[in-house]
Amino acid sequence: MNIDVSVLIAVIGCALSVGTFFIGRTTAAKSSGQEYGVMLTDIGYIKSGVDDMKKKMDQSDKRYIEIEKRVTALEEIAKIYHTGGKG
Q: CA-to-CA distance for 65 and 71, rounded, in angstroms?
């Protein structure tokens, strides 16, 4: 039972082609998964930054309201002094 060299080379070539295909597909899937993970991490960082900005804006709004109350009180005092205490 002699195996022809050309048949043997063809079989080995096919086996290498199939093996290379599966290895390439696995590598591509792994690379794609890593890219997806990096993207999700970046989105998480962006979301965290937006949340921090919201907190700072809320703090600024509270300070603004407090200052507005103080200015209103000062205006009332100035109005009383301006009218000579008749107000």
A: 10
pLDDT attached to residue 22: 86
pTM exceeding the 0.85 threshold for the entire prediction: no
Distance between CA atoms of 72 and 69, rounded to whole angstroms?
5
Cα gap 84→87, rounded to integer Å: 8
Distance CA 17, CA 24 (A): 10
| Structure-token pair, residue 21 | 């295909």
Tens digit of each residue's pLDDT (9 = 90 or more) over 4-27: 888 878 888 889 998 888 888 888
CB 53 within 8 A of CB 45: no
